[in-house]
Protein: Endolytic murein transglycosylase
Organism: Bradyrhizobium oligotrophicum S58
Amino acid sequence: MSERPPISPRSPRAALEPERVPPPPRRSDRARNPFVVVGNAIITLLILAMIGAGGAYYYGRQILETPGPLQDDKIVNIPQRAGKRDIADVLAREGVIDVNPWIFIGGVYALKASSDLKPGEYAFQKNASLREVIGVIVEGKVVQHGVTIPEGLTSEQIVARLSDNEIFTGSVREIPREGTLLPETYKFPRGTSRDQVIQRMQQAQKRVLAEIWERRSPDLPVRTPEQLVTLASIVEKETGKPDERSRVAAVFVNRLRQRIKLQSDPTIIYGLVGGKGTLGRPIKRSEITQPSPYNTYVIEGLPPGPISNPGRASLEATANPARTRDLYFVADGTGGHAFTETYDLHQKNVAKLRAMERQTQNDTVEPEEAPPALAGGAADPAASGAAPRAPAGAKKPPANRASGGAAAPGGALPAGRQGAAQSGQPVVQQ
């Protein structure tokens, strides 16, 4: 058995007193070094900074990723020369963001987009987050507005349309030459200058015309691309039906080959009003024979220039017309035209049209000075609401010696035109 240490007796008072704790060891001189103290302070500050940065990162990410207040997609315009604070105010006013402007600015800096914000019109999606909003502006994908220029307008009419469109800026310095603009659907951002629009349309027309000219029919009786545009502009004004363009073009091409006057009503109108495009009233009988550089009832061959801006389809149809011998066409009463090779067949088609008009419009009083329906069937007489009238003294034209005896209405009364419906109803160009 091990021996226990002897227990020294203590008084009760001594037993109640705590035992003395030994003093702590003396701090080393190294621990009291000022460099160590500073180092410890720096480490402590770094740890606190890392904790703060982590919290800020988490909070900032939450702000950037939280869905925004937009209830529906919305287009907002960021003006030119707008600063970051201005952009934040615009977005807040339009309901795209609901954060303090300074938070928006902080987000811009956090995403390193301070110098990449671009003005323009932007489409923001529903509930777009702050990150997505800033990303849209940085990408610069502005809203593109579709602008459709119909075929067959004059350059003056096209410029008027551009002037009325509020998405464009500036003014057109001068009216472009007729036939140099390509009718098409274009897309432009808001703020595009009107001169830039004109330049783009001219470039498109040059490109398309060059492509079509290279693929033209080898026996086409036009010598230059400009003449092709001139003839296509007449075809464009004569029919609005896509499936008739090549056949209408064939009529005019056949007439050019046989040296027959084109006798197209739209050329009369252009000679009277020029770039205004529409006459606003029926053509008078006296105007059919009124001398004009564009009046193809008076001049031989093509007019000196286009009478409108034809579209791609009319250029294609004119460059590669249908292989027919047609020399005449007349409205068929259904919105289209009836084509014939001879004057006699043409007269029969005219008689059919008259019968249809008498059947449906025999109660309409005809205007006092109404010429026969105009060349090329620019409009269906049946659709105009006027009663037909037989032309006075209509007769078959004499044979054209240059074409080997083919019927040539060039010097005949208006009843012999290629597209003339034998009706007294004047045609107002559409």
Remarks:
- The beta strands are 74-78, 120-124, 144-148, 185-189, 328-331, 337-340, 399-400, 406-407.
- The chain has three domains: 74-139, 145-208, 228-416.
- The chain is about 40% helix and 5% strand.
